[in-house]
Inverse folding.
């Protein structure tokens, strides 16, 4: 970034140069130049030896051209390869081990029934779940695999998932023993294995300071490595409001780390004040430590995007729907990350429709498609599954597979479709938010809404991907919540907001009476509810058409 440092950026630079600030945490909002700030800081100290830890190899390579030569720009895996990984080079180059062979090696010989009337788990599925448990352990800061690393099977109750984890632990420890062998191992050795072995050695890296980017989504194994470097100055930057990978075991290290100095970067250079104001609605609900300031020259707007460059969805199933709609409209869609995830979902659905078991992680618990329908209808937490069921029942797996087969590369696309998770780190000029971001449910007894923190963060990530036009279509409902007083801060799980009305479905559109009358629907609608009328900024005209 060539401009003069902002006041906030200068504060970060000054703290970095201060000998009495050994540990610094910087909260940097979307598009606020966090990586550029680190580069400016490092360039003020050319005689100190530093380490910049990047999220992936591409970022590390790019950083090498911007940081001074005294800063080693690496990924965590490249740090671990020299002292540990190189000894396992032969195993890294080894072939993929078929699931049947993994099951035989671990000792899974017959199906196991864990959960009531749901499908038994086949030996190959048990082998896959065991390796998933091992993978969670590899990303943890723990010393050995345990039940706390157990995978979650969709459709299982919490008790069933705990029972499954307890059952898998002995097999996971057998797998871990095999993975530590330099020679003669039977299982596929991955890069995460040598990173874990490196972490278990408690290394001290010979540098004067360590710069850690994207610290809001850090694996515990990486957080542990960073913690060990207490001989050096440590600076971590990130955006706690974008900590969206908790489901993979990532942690917000910025919130947990004891810092000598906490600073913020709130001036976004990605978009103008209009989109910044929209992002701040979600930061308000999250009770985040900063609010964004837009960049007026960006010239952004919040409103309809007739032909958006990108459409962002909550789920893979929602992405399927958008890809199918784009294809039916004559547009050429691309899908961020490719169509493999969707293809596997459609193939798994076809297996269940045919009465055959499937090994797909999201559907492995079900015996047939009827069980999937039942689970989706009864479980409020199965929102993503509900979208999938609707798509499969309306279009069939064959049609979905045909559409996936017609996907094009992003360079050739008329529109890019992505889940919000896969859109993180990306940006487009015109962005539309799809309709599968579900509004929080209202408890009919307490009349209170539970806003799940993970969902609020995902919404914030989605609305901050736009540079020019944000069509917030699927997240317009935020306006109700930000207009109400929040009576409790957001806990790790959810925030409680008072007396939020249950919005009426679009299908219940009807004509209201006067303000003193109840509307003609089966229940008070969003605009006719007295609590809404008391707080809404403008009165609703009698006889107004709404829904």
């Amino acid at each position: 970034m060539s401009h003069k440092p902002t006041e906030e950026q200068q504060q970060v630079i000054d703290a970095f140069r201060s000998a009495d600030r050994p540990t610094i945490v910087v909260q940097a909002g979307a598009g606020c130049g966090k990586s550029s700030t680190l580069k400016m800081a490092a360039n003020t100290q050319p005689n100190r030896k530093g380490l910049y830890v990047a999220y992936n190899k591409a970022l590390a390579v790019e950083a090498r051209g911007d940081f001074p030569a005294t800063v080693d720009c690496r990924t965590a895996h490249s740090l671990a390869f020299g002292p540990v990984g190189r000894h396992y080079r032969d195993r890294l180059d080894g072939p993929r081990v078929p699931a049947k062979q993994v099951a035989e090696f671990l000792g899974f010989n017959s199906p196991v029934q864990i959960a009531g009337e749901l499908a038994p788990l086949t030996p190959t599925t048990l082998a896959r779940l065991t390796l998933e448990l091992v993978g969670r352990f590899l990303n943890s800061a723990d010393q050995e695999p345990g039940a706390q690393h157990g995978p979650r099977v969709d459709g299982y109750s919490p008790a069933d998932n705990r029972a499954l984890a307890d059952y898998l632990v002995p097999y996971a420890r057998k797998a871990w023993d095999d993975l530590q062998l330099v020679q003669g191992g039977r299982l596929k050795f991955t890069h995460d294995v040598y990173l874990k072995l490196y972490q278990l050695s408690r290394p001290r890296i010979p540098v004067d300071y360590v710069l850690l980017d994207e610290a809001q989504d850090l694996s515990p194994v990486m957080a542990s490595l960073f913690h060990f470097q207490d001989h050096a100055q440590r600076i971590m930057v990130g955006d706690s409001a974008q900590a969206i990978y908790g489901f993979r075991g990532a942690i917000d290290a910025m919130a947990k780390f004891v810092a000598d100095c906490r600073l913020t970067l709130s001036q976004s250079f990605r978009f103008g004040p209009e989109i910044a104001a929209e992002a701040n609605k979600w930061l308000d609900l999250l009770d985040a430590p900063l609010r964004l300031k837009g960049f007026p020259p960006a010239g952004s707007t919040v409103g309809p995007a007739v032909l958006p460059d990108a459409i962002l969805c909550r789920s893979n199933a929602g992405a399927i729907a958008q890809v199918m709609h784009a294809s039916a409209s004559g547009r050429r869609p691309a899908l961020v990350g490719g169509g493999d995830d969707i293809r596997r979902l459609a193939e798994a659905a076809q297996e269940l429709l045919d009465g055959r078991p499937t090994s797909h992680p999201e559907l492995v618990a079900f015996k047939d498609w009827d069980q999937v329908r039942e689970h989706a209808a009864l479980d409020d937490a199965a929102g993503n599954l509900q979208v999938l069921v609707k798509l499969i029942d309306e279009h069939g797996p064959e049609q979905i597979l045909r559409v996936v087969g017609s996907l094009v590369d992003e360079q050739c696309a008329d529109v890019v479709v992505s889940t919000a998770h896969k859109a993180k780190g990306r940006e487009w000029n015109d962005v539309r938010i799809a309709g599968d971001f579900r509004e929080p449910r209202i408890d009919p007894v307490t009349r209170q809404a539970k806003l799940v923190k993970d969902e609020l963060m995902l919404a914030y990530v989605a609305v901050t991907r736009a540079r020019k036009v944000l069509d917030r279509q699927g997240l317009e409902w935020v306006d109700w919540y930000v207009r109400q007083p929040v009576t409790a801060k957001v806990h790790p799980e959810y925030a409680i907001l008072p007396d939020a009305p249950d919005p009426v479905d679009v299908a219940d559109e009807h004509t209201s009476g006067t303000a003193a009358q109840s509307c003609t629907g089966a229940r008070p609608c969003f605009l006719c509810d007295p609590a809404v009328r008391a707080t809404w900024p403008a009165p609703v005209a009698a006889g107004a058409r709404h829904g």
Notes: Residues 276-483 form one domain. The chain has a mean pLDDT of 85.
